[in-house]
Design goal:
The structure is a single chain. This protein is an all-alpha fold. The protein folds into two domains: about 150 residues, no CATH class; about 100 residues, no CATH class. Helix content is about 70%, strand content about 0%.
């Protein structure tokens, strides 16, 4: 399971995080990402990782749900950290390295927060929560229907695209490396994955057209299949997020 890219893949569970209203979780995610993005201090990073780790523990997520990081990502991080160390800076000539570490910690924290929401929320409920959150923007003449429909299709299509890429990569391992050099092999993989993704997109478009076209944001937000209960757990979640965001600017 650690070798799979489990993005927006619902992990079965009966924890309090799983039972939370999807609208409250998406709202808390947007507020946290919006506030923390304007202050990437160590205090903000600490609060961010506390939310990620605390949410994962409350959700009782299995350890294997976290995908194994690609080797190229680890090499890139090590290379940029080496460049930061060479750049020097205060304090003690480690300013560049500290800046790179802070950047990685902040980026991975935001990614982890998004993954926790994705793992504890059914895929079909994410577009419903997003459409509900976007509905007030209709007064500002924002094309809410188009945005909501695009998000709904993107959320539905992402697992399919990930499966296609995994299939293409798995099949490429059976080919002998002597036939192609590295550049040509990469071009073949890119072309194959692109064709597979386009084929999936055409199939999804035909399926949407056969069902009467894309629904409006109001129709998506009012989906009866998404739970819409608001209780003390949702209030506690939003209160904790607001308190953490406030503490970032106070401390």
């Amino acid at each position: 399971m650690r070798n799979q890219l489990n993005l927006l893949r619902y992990v079965e569970g009966d924890s309090i995080v799983h039972r939370l209203n999807p609208r409250a979780k998406v709202l808390a995610l947007v507020v946290a990402m919006g506030v923390f993005s304007f202050d990437a201090s160590w205090v903000a990073i600490g609060f961010l990782w506390a939310i990620v780790i605390g949410g994962s523990m409350l959700a009782r997520l299995p350890r294997g749900v976290t995908p194994k990081p690609p080797r190229i990502l680890l090499i890139t991080m090590a290379f940029t950290c080496a460049l930061g160390l060479i750049a020097g800076g205060e304090p003690y000539g480690l300013g560049g390295l500290i800046l790179q570490v802070r950047l990685f910690a902040f980026t991975l924290g935001l990614l982890g927060l998004s993954l926790v929401v994705g793992w504890t929320t059914a895929t079909a409920d994410l577009p419903v929560a997003a459409a509900w959150l976007l509905t007030p923007l209709r007064r500002l003449r924002v094309p809410v229907d188009d945005v909501a429909a695009g998000l709904a299709l993107a959320v539905r299509a992402l697992p399919l695209v990930v499966d296609e890429f995994a299939t293409v990569i798995s099949l490429s391992r059976f080919r002998t490396k002597k036939q192609k050099d590295l550049v040509a092999r990469g071009m073949d993989l890119t072309a194959t994955a692109t064709v597979a993704s386009v084929r999936r997109g055409i199939e999804m478009g035909e399926a949407v057209a056969s069902r009467g076209g894309t629904p409006s944001a109001a129709d998506i937000a009012a989906s009866p299949g998404c739970p819409n209960h608001w209780g003390w757990a949702e209030a506690a979640l939003l209160t904790a997020i607001i308190a953490a965001c406030s503490a970032v600017y106070i401390l």
